[in-house]
Write a structure and sequence with these properties.
The chain is mostly helical and 85 residues long. It has one domain (2-75). It contains three helices and no strands. The radius of gyration is 20 Å and the shape is rod-shaped.
Length: 85
């Protein structure tokens, strides 16, 4: 079960580490394009607390979702799996 939790954490961490900065960059760029097209002031802001909360929530959610398959894998006997092959 711990292995599946580590794998879920690693995948979620990579997704957050790449997705959050990329999302901020693309979001700011798109907002600036939109604001300039409607003659608004293009001053996009990124609330740091919200970014941290969303990032941590993604990591927690990944582990919650991985808990069910992890529990099932932990209950499965190795002998039963190998016997099936």
């Amino acid at each position: 079960m711990a292995t599946i939790a580590w794998q879920a954490s690693a995948v979620a961490f990579v997704g957050v580490a790449l997705g959050v900065p990329l999302g901020i960059i693309v979001g700011r760029w798109l907002w600036t394009l939109f604001a300039n097209s409607v003659d608004a002031v293009p001053e996009p802001t990124v609330p740091a607390l919200t970014v941290v909360i969303v990032s941590l929530s993604a990591l927690v959610l990944a582990n919650i979702v991985a808990a069910l398959p992890g529990r099932r894998a932990a209950r499965t006997s190795t002998a039963d799996v190998l016997r099936g092959e």
